[in-house]
């Protein structure tokens, strides 16, 4: 792994809980009931269920093996894929592609006419208009071609449960660490953050597999106290959510719903408990709002904790690292005596003179802390104003991540952003439906969607800068199928060359560990000569350990965790020692002279760190997945006025310009790696679009200048020129109509997007 070495990956997935065993067949049963070699599986599954019901009703005794045979269709179901790709119907996508090709041809004739027919008496106006039109055409190409292969996906949660989460057996689902980031509690209300945390703690996932880390980059005692209150309220809220299977599991939004909350609720005491829980939540809100009111006036001597000691974060720019575990193994049980997910407060160390890299630095600190304390193989990051709207969203992501065929090459699963509180007409295009329902579906058919900063499930190993596992190609065609005379001409020279170039000594990449009893491996991968003696092997292991520490930082516990592809922590380590190590990895100087922010974790260099981070992963050959569940996975808050919306657009544009001038610019970075050609188009489009504001401003100004000067940007049109102009306009409208047809985007959303494209360009 370290030092440029190749990464070793485990053997293909094989579920030990589903052995292939010889089975006795009951002559009285139809062979189709066994489900193997199925073609129309759903129909046969229903037939099998109906047959079982009839046999039970008529008292048909199927023999002693009947109980064992009843599980066979379920075993077949558990072996099937956890998700599938759904290409769009050819009747929708083929006309769309055809009109794109026609539009390209028409563009060629259009520009031929424009360039070959200058306006001599208004040459400057003509030249500016042609340059602007060429830029618009190039921008359209960069935006259009990544949408050439749009797809949709479907997941099978029942198969995931059959394979990894069987009732009555320990869950085999992979652990996951949740990251929530916040900075200023006065700008990001604590009540919003606590609702996000509560929705995480009550997610429909095994409790022992969930850990929630909250990054407080403002070191605010208000956030700390709010999380303390949240941990107490969670002891009542989490069991209530799971007992009655309510949605969403953020209490603020659950109690605001204007729906029939009695629908599908058959428990007699549900109404009584819901009223009691609503009273509990109102009291919780009062306590949170009291904390906010108290925080408005900061004492001159600073905040003090309950034991009288000063709050370590009184100086926001100069304070030590802080970690507090509120819930988990040592944080108490819920009101029903069950374990709760782990809840951890993290505030990284801040000192003057250090560049802390804003959100990207905070996320990298959470990556290291979580690796030391829990080291789940998967991570999910959420902004503090995005709550989980679908409690099964994590299982939706695991249908891709844990798929034995697809999962190993998936670096992250991105969910679309959806928002609350937007006006019905969405006059500021906050929903961004065109991007999330058109562009992202197109990218999913190439190498996957770009990372948009929140609502994303990551593979931890991909964040560590490793290359994607290589898929073994089938053996190439040999000349055995050709006549013997062809062998002499075509193949002899190549085979001879292969024999002569065979190396004399072969080296094998081996795992070299220093193990203790009940302890995970403590050393790294290394290229070790098979014939090397044991002492040299140990020396090589130490050298590789040093290389990894130079890459990941001076923490042996964290370096060890990076070698565990399936996660897990040191069994022999005490909580106190792990906490001490966690404090060490969030120190402000830990990243000095390491690859953090360059090759590992969230990448530094832009305020839009999400684009850079996803781009680096795709350059390493990973692919991403776009998951749109039937029930929206996450919901967040959007800017409510034009000023905030324009400020958001400006921030995104500045981030793209920073990437444009950086070493990681997609125009020249990553060639020869794993980034696909059309995927690069999308990343180039994401960093050049801010420059479109210049030709857009110029082009929108030209009509006024033409009216004032009495000149025009085109000469008098003949019939052929009119044909090309009309054809281009028709192609533009046809492209948009066909795009809305296959994507399901409405005309209102499309028009708002076009409007705000012009408004944002002028901004």
Describe the protein.
The chain has 763 residues and is an alpha/beta fold. The chain folds into four domains: 50 residues, no CATH class; 144 residues, no CATH class; 314 residues, Spore Coat Polysaccharide Biosynthesis Protein SpsA, Chain A; 79 residues, no CATH class. The chain is built from 25 helices and 15 strands. The strands form four sheets. It has an eight-stranded mixed β-sheet with strand order 5-6-4-3-7-11-9-14, with helices on both faces. Strands 8-15-10 form a three-stranded mixed β-sheet. Helix 5 packs antiparallel against helix 23, helix 7 runs parallel beside helix 8 and helix 23 packs across helix 25. The longest helix is centred in the N-terminal third of the chain and has 27 residues. The radius of gyration is 30 Å and the shape is globular. The N terminus is likely disordered.
Please outline what is shown here.
By secondary structure, the protein is α/β, with parallel strands linked by helices. It has 25 helices and 15 strands. 46% of the residues lie in helices and 10% in strands.
What topology emerges from the helices and strands here?
Elements: H1 41-58, H2 66-69, H3 72-78, E1 83-87, H4 90-116, H5 123-144, E2 151-155, H6 157-164, E3 176-182, H7 190-201, E4 210-216, H8 221-244, H9 251-256, H10 270-295, E5 322-327, E6 342-347, H11 358-373, E7 378-383, E8 387-388, H12 393-401, E9 410-414, E10 418-420, H13 433-444, E11 456-459, H14 460-463, H15 484-490, H16 492-500, E12 507-511, E13 525-529, H17 534-552, H18 556-562, H19 575-585, H20 609-619, E14 623-626, E15 634-637, H21 642-660, H22 677-688, H23 693-709, H24 719-743, H25 747-762
Parallel strand pairs: 3-4, 3-7, 4-6, 9-14, 10-15
Antiparallel strand pairs: 1-2, 5-6, 7-11, 8-15, 9-11, 12-13
Helix pairs in contact: 3-6, 4-5, 4-24, 5-23, 7-8, 8-10, 11-19, 23-25
